[in-house]
Specification:
Elements: E1 7-12, E2 15-20, H1 31-45, E3 52-57, E4 68-70, H2 75-78, H3 83-102, E5 106-111, E6 114-116, H4 118-125, E7 128-132, E8 136-138, H5 152-160, H6 162-171, E9 175-176, H7 177-182, E10 188-190, H8 195-207, H9 211-224, H10 229-243, H11 247-258
Parallel strand pairs: 2-3, 3-5, 4-6, 5-7, 6-8, 7-10
Antiparallel strand pairs: 1-2, 8-9
Length: 268
């Protein structure tokens, strides 16, 4: 894979780990990092050997791996933005964030520390969120005279409900990992030293299943979420038909009928 200034990518079997690594800025998202993220996600999605992507934050300048996931967007870069420049910045970020949401691989955010502003937003764009016990989430933008611009006003309400989203955004208050778990913002909380191991365990569980079926199920969930239930169920039935005409369907059901544990899934 290509090398990037602000990202690190490692592959471990069918799992890729993408670390956002700007140690002098607590991994804050600037224009360069957003552009690199967009390119890296395209590269990963095109790689048939990658089934699950874990997104996490690299260590800080003192090599502390648990301090920051992404501390937000780069305020120094944003300070002199005009309205058109700010809009363009938000739209540039939307592209990789939508890739995280819609790419065929399952995306897991392993949130290791501060996930503020753009950091909370990038985590919310992932399919599943895991948090270390020292993780901090928040959308502090109104305290800076702006609003969330990378999808925060939309994804947060969809994940935790409108009332809780409004409280977090209007007060610019941060919440800890346990509160994030309580309101449904994260799926699990782990001791910080165990976070990446648990993320990889989850990835392995996903990878044992039929990757094409997982990707189709992901598309069904994402595309049906805002549909009325009748059209959504019809869409699901159509996709159910598609996956029934695959090698993996015959392999998975054949293994069940034959009572064997080994499954040779090949579709993706």
């Amino acid at each position: 894979m290509a090398e990037y200034n602000n990202l690190k990518i490692e592959k471990d079997g069918a799992t890729a780990v993408l670390s956002i690594a700007r140690p002098n800025a607590l991994n804050a998202l600037n224009s360069e990092t957003i552009g690199e993220l967009n390119s890296a996600l395209s590269e990963i999605e095109a790689d048939d050997s990658v089934k699950v992507l874990i997104v996490t934050g690299g260590p800080d300048k003192k090599d502390n791996p648990y301090k920051s996931f992404v501390a937000g967007a780069d305020i120094k870069e944003m300070y002199d933005f005009t309205a058109p420049e700010a809009r363009a910045f938000g739209m540039r970020a939307a592209e990789p964030f939508f890739k995280l949401m819609n790419m065929r691989q399952v995306t897991i955010a392993a949130v290791n520390g501060f996930a503020l502003g753009g950091g909370c937003e990038i985590a919310m764009a992932c399919d599943i969120r895991l948090a270390s016990d020292n993780a901090i989430f928040g959308q502090p933008e109104v305290g800076l005279g702006i609003i969330p611009g990378f999808g925060g006003t939309q994804r947060l309400a969809r994940l935790v409900g409108m009332g809780r989203a409004k409280e977090m955004i209007f007060t610019a208050s941060n919440i800890d990992a346990e509160e994030a778990y309580r309101i449904g913002l994260v799926n699990h909380v782990y001791p910080k030293e165990e976070l990446m191991a648990e993320a990889k365990k989850l990835a392995e569980k996903i990878e044992r299943n039929a990757s094409y079926a997982v990707s189709v199920a992901k598309a069904a969930i994402n595309n049906g979420y805002d549909m009325d239930i009748k059209n959504a169920v019809e869409m699901e039935a159509n996709l159910f038909g598609v996956v029934n005409d695959t090698h993996d369907k015959k392999e998975g059901m054949g293994a069940f009928i034959e009572g064997r544990k080994e499954k040779n899934f090949t579709d993706f």
